[in-house]
Amino acid sequence: MTKRTFKGKTILVTAGPTHEPIDPVRFIGNHSTGKMGYALAESFAIRGARVQLVSGPVNLEAKHPQIHVTAVTTAEQMYEAVKSMAATADILVFAAAVADYRPKVVADKKIKKSGNELTIDLVKNVDIAAALGKAKKETQFSVGFALETNNESENAREKLQKKNLDMIVLNSLNDPGAGFKHDTNKITIIEKDTVTAFDLKHKSEVAEDIVNLIWERVNA
Q1: pTM of the complete model
Q2: Which tens digit of pLDDT belongs to each residue from 70-94?
Q3: Which of 78, 85, 136, 192 is the most buried (most CB within 10 A)?
Q4: 30, 59, 151, 171: which is the annotated catalytic residue?
């Protein structure tokens, strides 16, 4: 059996949440821990790849020497970092849970309680995977993630096409033990003409499944 190595390849991975500031104290975010993205980065690095890991705010540390971490906070910062590195990547893996919207205006001082309601105007962030998908080279392979709560397969297939991805990793919050805040995950990998489903596993094992399938597609 051929050793499934990524030696000589550069992999760009995004991981974790983004925090979109409201004021110096508060932000809009989500429950992503970054565990899935970090597990993927480790799996690629162990197989010889040079990994560029662009990480939102997490309580994790990348230990492999082949992983270079660029720490960011906001979606805009993540987009700028990814955009600057994308051209040199052989494989792009968009595992971060990027906030879809950010406050239109960020207060420079803590917003004090006043009245029973507070209205915050939001503006849309750049869809990083979609933006990079438009500029993707024929030689590049890109992977997205879809965390869904309803119409899972339909929504994932729509993202696969719209974002010009080669595959998308679907997980549902309806599956016990999957999604945010868990050490386990249950995924289905959707490609244009193929669907591959996996059982609930530890995220390190899930990362191995994803990386194995990427290797098979890249080396087909």
Answers
A1: 0.93
A2: 999 999 999 999 999 999 999 999 9
A3: 78
A4: 30
